[in-house]
Amino acid sequence: MYAIVDIETTGGHASANGITEIAIYIYDGREIMQQYETLINPGQPIPRYIQSLTGISDEMVADAPSFDEVAGDIYTLLHDKIFVAHNVNFDYSFIQYHLAKAGYQLRSKKLCTVRLGRKIIPGLPSYSLGNLCKSLQIAVTQRHRATGDAAATVKLFGMLLQQDVNKAIAHALNAHSKESFLPPNLPPEQVTGLPGNPGVYYFHDQKGKVVYVGKAKNIRKRVNSHFTGNSAGRRRQEFLRNIYSISHEVTGTELMAHILESVEIKRLWPIYNYSQKYIEFKYGFYSFQDQQGYLRLAIEKRRKYSTPLHSFPLLIQGHQMLRGLIREFDLCPRMCFLQKGEGPCSPIPDHTCRGACHKQESPETYNLRVKAAIIHMQQQQPTFAIMGTGRDAFEQSCILMEKGRFYGMGYIPRDTAITEGLQVKEWLTQYPENEYILNLIHSHAGNHDQELLKFS
To answer: d(Cα 97, Cα 105) in Å, to the nearest integer?
Structure first.
């Protein structure tokens, strides 16, 4: 037995909006067995654009029952039926949410006439209820009212039942089928065709634009997890409505998927990715020559398009490293901005300044030691490759760190002997680095020493 449902609401998501009208037709596949419809007082004003669309005004629902008053009747009609609606997840999310608030837990199998229409009657120009009914010559009265749209959905569903020669409805109701959870505009074969490998996946909108990028250890499993549940929030409902297609890129390892996801989020700036999009103000060493010709070392917040000599996540790490360079290469603390003010600098433990800060030492002499300190600092940064599984049995993956900087990653033929960092570069794609990627790589390297190839 099917419960064919349509509702009108005050907005697009259940958690902040109410139902203004509901119609339920109990249908056995041949005839309507029972019919229920009522206006509902949503307990909040109906926006004017929705009043214009539906014709339901605040005055019309002023004396209507609240949802709590009719929740028992609605639950009785729905709880043991197959829930059918046009774009079923919208109607179901509203009704399930408001029934739960009233103390009823609805758990129904669902059928979506948008999705079924695409499968059973392919090739139509549009699968919105109005256009679909127009294409199939189904008369619709009271468009955008619950009773009129539900009655049209009954006729549409009856036609789908008759023309379902490939058993699309039975497949959708199969316990192992997840079609009822999929976004209404996403072809199911795009999900079933996804690989079970690590990689990055992209959700595209109607125009093909990437609206979300994700990473996964198992792409198929992770994509399916986006569509389970019936969250009533605005963000999730809008997100699901805007997914029209999926693309993906397989990576050899989960670490590579994490790195590629971060690169792609910053490249594409997808509307539904909320983390990793913003500029990271980690710290870096910078050098410049002042007006007197002295080379100065400074610690600054890393700017978006700058390239520091060396970077680090915590300011205290930079200060520790800078003090070590000052002691080892006899640099001036004031010229390195560790001390403020005019005049000679104050001594630091185990170090005596040679006087560059008050011009007792020439720029040429002092700058030789600054350049030596910079070379030493850069040489201390490690160069290594993280080797891992490839995308198939004939290759191995490689992530290259060069003197503390992320160079890039790619795939190398499995039988290639590697003895130095330059040797792998021809196989790799260069990528920009960020603090998140560096932390990922260093954390992985610290825990997987057996995967590292270290180069001098």
So the answer is: 9
| Nearest-angstrom CA–CA distance, 4 and 152 | 10
Neighbours of 298 (CB within 10 A): 16
Instruction: Give the side-chain half-sphere CA count within 13 A for 71.
Output: 18
Q: Which contiguous run of DSSP H or E holds residue 403?
A: none
**How many Cα atoms within 13 Å fall on the side-chain side of residue 77?**
23
- Whether 114 and 180 have beta carbons less than 8 Å apart is answered as no
Sign, CA dihedral 441-444-447-449, equals negative
> What pLDDT score was predicted for residue 230?
56
Q: How far is CA 217 from the centre of its chain?
A: 15
Q: Report, as ranges of residue numbers, the positions in the chain whose pLDDT lies below 70.
A: 175-180, 229-233, 277-281, 304-305, 342-344, 421, 456
pLDDT of residue 305: 65
61 burial via Cβ count (<10 Å: 0-12, 13-18, 19+): buried
Angle, helix 234-241 to helix 88-101, in steps of 10 degrees: 170
Hey, what amino acid is at 437?
A: I
Which of 258, 276, 280 shows the shortest CA–CA distance to 267?
276
pLDDT tens, position by position, 166-203: 999 998 888 656 666 788 888 888 998 899 999 999 99
Give 96's contacts (C-beta < 8 A, 6+ positions apart).
Answer: 14, 106, 230, 232
**Residue range 96-116, pLDDT digits in tens:** 999 999 999 998 999 999 999
For residues 150 and 100, what is the distance between their CA atoms, to the nearest angstrom? 23
Say if CB 156 and CB 169 are below 8 A apart.
Answer: no
Query: Contact 130/143 with Cβ under 8 angstroms?
Result: yes
Q: Secondary structure of 56-89 in the HEC alphabet?
A: CCHHHHCCCCEHHHHHHHHHHHHCCCEEEECCHH
Tallying the residues shown for the chain, one arrives at 456
State the pairing for strand pair 110-112/32-39.
unpaired
Question: CA-based angle 111:12:214, to the nearest 5?
Answer: 75
Contacts of 95 (CB under 8 A, 6+ apart): 5, 7, 19, 22, 74, 78, 106
- Which residues are 410's β-sheet partners? 398, 428
> Residues 443, 449, 453, CA angle at the centre, nearest 5°?
105
Q: Are 395 and 412 in contact (CB under 8 A)?
A: yes
Residue 365 is encoded by which pair of tokens? Answer: 């002499």
Longest dimension (CA), the chain: 102
| Side-chain-side CA neighbours of residue 55 (13 Å) | 7
Give 374-390 as a 3 state SS string.
HHHHHHHCCEEEEEEEC
Q: Strand ranges (DSSP E) for 325-371?
A: none
Token pair recorded at residue 357: 């800060």
